[in-house]
Specification:
By secondary structure, this protein is α/β, with parallel strands linked by helices. It is built from eleven helices and twelve strands. The longest helix is centred in the first third of the chain and has 17 residues. It binds zinc ion (ZN). The site of zinc ion has 3 residues, from loops.
Length: about 325
């Protein structure tokens, strides 16, 4: 099964160990208004990302998914440059973020004023998946959609419907952002629109410590994202490890994908310089292999099961094959 990367199509079997949620750059809408600061140039950002990828390669990782949607700073030329310099596989997304922090002023007005806006949004996703982004020929490989706090609003539902249609037309899988809540609702809505559960990752689920919530997602047949290792102020890693081990004990290791949700460059002064330096010093992107793997083993997860999560599951997700469980 061929999948799109920033460096052109590859065979899903060649992904190897894959982090399923990391970011080269994020820029929340409004960053341009902060004119008091000097942003990094493309060249400076490229240097930062190339360094990060060298660390990942040292840790045995060969691929990543950067699921940044179109409206929070996705930078396709940066991804293409970094991918070609490093030979690292970067799968990237087409999609839109949730109503609170995404490009909702633009899209809300469009949904109100343009009768076929939902169709046009779905067509945009399809175009980026099949023809490429803005005439570059560089194609997205996944569809990113998001919700935040309840309720699941009409703005987000419109985006979900456009995404479901783009999936049905292209076969591209879907990955979501959650605030570790409503993942089960996302899954129910997408499957009601005809998207098979095994084509969906419910992201950031490890932000919840609720095992029953996790079970709803895996029993529903979706992949579950334990993709924020290192974000200790949201959820301690000890809890993430325990909840992950609980799922493995019940036999769901074929549905877990792992990552850190690290952000390597920010546009605008999102975080203080000290915070960014601290993150870089901690080697955020290597945390899973260096720190989390021994913790998982301690909790009873085997090397083989860790490899299933890092390697087999991303391959199977992109290939679109069911994981073999009876749900
Ligand atoms: Zn993210």
């Amino acid at each position: 099964m061929r999948i799109n990367t920033a460096n052109g199509p590859i065979d899903a079997k060649d992904l190897g160990k894959t982090l399923m949620h990391e970011h080269l750059v994020i820029a929340f809408p409004g960053w341009e208004s902060d004119t008091a600061i000097t942003n990094q140039t493309l060249r400076e950002m490229t240097a930062v990302c190339v360094d990060k990828i060298a660390e990942l390669k040292d840790a045995g990782i060969s691929s990543m998914l950067d699921p940044c949607p179109n409206d929070i700073g996705r930078d396709v030329p940066l991804m293409a440059e970094v991918a070609s310099r490093t030979g690292f596989n970067i799968v990237f997304a087409t999609g839109l973020y949730h109503k609170h922090y995404g490009g909702s002023p633009y899209w809300s007005i469009k949904f109100m004023t343009t009768p076929d806006a939902e169709k046009r949004l779905g067509d945009l996703f399809i175009k980026e998946l099949t023809e490429g982004v803005q005439g570059t020929g560089i194609k997205a490989g996944v569809i990113k959609i998001a919700t935040a706090a309840p309720p699941f609003n009409d703005y987000e539902k419109t985006i979900f419907r456009a995404a479901a249609r783009a999936h049905l037309e292209t076969g591209a899988p879907i990955t979501t952002h959650t605030d570790a809540i409503m993942g089960d609702e996302q899954l129910a809505y997408l499957t009601s629109l005809g998207v098979p559960a095994h084509k969906i990752i419910i992201g950031h689920s490890c932000g919840s410590a609720d095992h029953d919530y996790h079970m709803k997602i895996v029993q529903g047949g979706a992949y579950i994202g334990f993709d924020r290792f290192g974000m200790e102020d949201i959820q301690p890693d000890t809890t993430r490890v325990q909840r992950l081990a609980d799922l493995v004990k019940k036999g769901f290791e074929k549905q877990i994908v792992v990552s850190h949700d690290s952000v390597w460059c920010w546009r605008g002064a999102m975080l203080s310089k000290e915070m960014i330096e601290k993150e870089h010093a901690q080697g955020m992107a290597m945390r899973f292999t260096r720190t989390i793997t021994p913790m998982l083993k301690e909790a009873g997860v085997t090397e083989k099961q860790i490899n299933t999560m890092l390697c087999d599951n991303p391959c199977r997700y992109f290939s679109g094959e069911p994981c073999g469980h009876n749900h």
